[in-house]
TrEMBL record:
Family, per entry: Belongs to the short-chain dehydrogenases/reductases (SDR) family.
Superkingdom as given in the UniProt entry: Bacteria
Protein name: 3-oxoacyl-[acyl-carrier protein] reductase
One Pfam family cited in the UniProt record for this chain: adh_short_C2
Length: 260
């Protein structure tokens, strides 16, 4: 399927690896010029070089920096000042017990997973409206749909972003600017494997045992492939997806047991 976005420009945050990288790759495959950001300059350069090799017809720009800081956002927007597509993404806050979190912990979580996406939307959405095309996708978490007790910081920050977007998405859609969210469950990423490694160490068992157990607990019997996530993201960014807005697409292999 031709998604009709060849030649568009995208800003994809935290895209050196994992789900962000999968989104950048899927957009590049559609002929979209991609600006990639990440904190790790070495990993980002490697990821950008690979996309240039695979898709020489598109422009791949890399901007190393922390997108959750004003300086990081300024650098990213300087490299891609008028994106047609914005993919908001940032690492989630650590797990824990809310009794141990202070104000600084909450502010850090809100800055990264609520306020940073809002600032980037604020900086880009009016231009999208003027050009009568825009696609914004926020990568949040399945915890927005089914909160996880030890991820209270993430639950709060990401749900706050979801509530904010719910109102704005209904105002921009008449200008062909949509705002949606992708809610990932367990995908086979470095983050998932690092968490599994920590669990295995704490339990004194092999990491493969933890991974096998988690896969068996999922209705799909496996973890998600990041490429699947990237394809879903690209579809939401497509020219024919202009009637989808304010939605939260859960991608968890069927783990959420509800009907809505």
């Amino acid at each position: 399927m031709d998604l009709g976005i060849k030649g568009r420009r995208a800003l994809v945050c935290a895209s050196s690896k994992g789900l962000g990288h999968a989104c950048a790759a899927a957009l590049a495959a559609e002929g979209v010029h991609v600006t990639m950001t990440a904190r790790g300059a070495e990993a980002l350069a490697k990821a950008a070089a690979e996309l240039r090799r695979l898709y020489p017809e598109v422009e791949i720009i890399e901007v190393a920096g922390d997108i959750t800081t004003p300086e990081g956002r300024a650098a990213a927007l300087a490299a891609c000042p008028a994106p047609d597509i914005l993919i908001n993404n940032a690492g989630g806050p650590p797990p824990g017990d809310f009794r141990n979190w202070g104000r600084d912990d909450w502010i850090k979580a809100l800055d990264a997973n609520m306020l940073t996406p809002i600032e980037l939307i604020k900086a880009t959405v009016d231009g999208m409206v003027e050009r009568h095309f825009g696609r914004i996708v926020n990568i949040t978490s399945a915890a927005v749909k089914a909160p996880i007790d030890v991820l209270g910081l993430s639950n709060g920050a990401r749900t706050g972003l979801t509530g904010f977007v719910a109102g704005l998405a209904r105002k921009t859609v008449r200008h062909n600017v949509t705002i949606n969210a992708l809610l990932p469950g367990p995908f086979d990423t470095d983050r998932l494997r690092s968490v599994a490694a920590a669990q295995a160490k704490a339990a004194g068992v092999p990491v493969q045992q933890i991974l096998r157990t988690r896969m068996a607990e999922n209705p799909a019997g496996r973890f998600g492939d990041p490429a699947e996530f990237g394809q879903a993201c690209a579809f939401l960014c497509g020219a024919k997806a202009g009637y989808i807005t304010g939605q939260n697409l859960l991608m968890d292999g069927g783990a959420f047991p509800g009907t809505l």
